[in-house]
Amino acid sequence: MKMFKTMTVAGAFAGAMLSGTASFAQEKFVTIGTGGQTGVYFVVGQSICRLVNRGTADHGLKCTAPSTGGSIANINAIKAGDMDMGVAQSDWQYHAYNGTSEYEGNKFDKERAVFSVHGEPFTIMARTDSGVKAFDDLKGKRVNVGNPGSGSAGTMDVVLDAKGWTKADFSLASELKPAEQAAALGDNKVDAITYTVGHPNGSIQEASSTVDATLVSVEGPEIDKLVADNPYYAKAVIPGGMYKGSPDDTNTFGVRATFVTSADVPDETIYQVVKAVFDNFDRFKSLHPAFANLKEEEMISAGLSAPLHDGAVKYYKERGWME
Ligand code: GLU
């Protein structure tokens, strides 16, 4: 996918001439890859940009955060130099930097971590009339596995592999985007939808309010092994009562949403972005319920496997969070 390249614009030139000063602010456009509009990545990107753009007069950065296909699409766009930053699941951050899984033979050495954000449970919601209560009940059912380029669909592949299943074990494996899947569940086009995502989110909310549906547990020895073998996975619980039709806790596993960039993005850019977030941290946390419990100390290490970007390190040292 082609997005804005970083570019510079002498935006304030006319103003500088009028006021008779020789200096003018240089505006530089930076782009953050997000996800579907009913997910949480979109809010992460929009929130960061909102904070960055409050300081454009000082630092010159103008930030945009368009909707994208998700983690893998974002990492690929950053690698290609088409985007500056993006949100990505901790498992895909890991695989891109280490050249494993989908990134075998396609290592992203210059990938850099910035911070991590909210947890993202691997989430399945099924129509109540499908009878699906646990992952194994999905055999023979119509399942939306998610759009190509999403971290969510990638993690679904990992789970299928771990179970010794393939997509052929479903009677239908659709590739609808997050914004389309709630309606597909409501219209009985699929029995279940899958989404690795922070909670609460619009997509699952919409699905559970459109049709009688319930969250599905994802447990068992194969999941225990995935969590034990891989640093970027952890057990996760979706709290009961968050969505209509799911009054009890749902056990599953999950990843963390992380914010990534490339070593090719200037230190000053990442420094200013990180500063905008952490200088205004209470404001940032208030922008989505999934951010409410974020803690600075955790965000600069949990779920990060690529090296931290130098511009982020500069800020974290200034705050005394790193030696
Ligand atoms: N984790 C999802 C993905 O990478 C995106 C979730 C979201 O947009 O909040 O595909």
TrEMBL record:
Q: Which UniProt keywords are listed?
A: Signal
Classification via CDD domains:
PBP2_TAXI_TRAP_like_3
Q: Pfam families, per this entry?
A: NMT1_3
- Superkingdom to which the source organism belongs: Bacteria
Entry-linked SUPFAM superfamilies: Periplasmic binding protein-like II (SSF53850)
The name this protein goes by in its record: TRAP transporter solute receptor, TAXI family
Looking up InterPro entries in the UniProt record yields: TRAP_TAXI
Q: Which PANTHER family match?
A: SLL1037 PROTEIN
In its UniProt entry, the species of origin is given as: Sulfitobacter undariae
- Signal sequence residues: 1-25
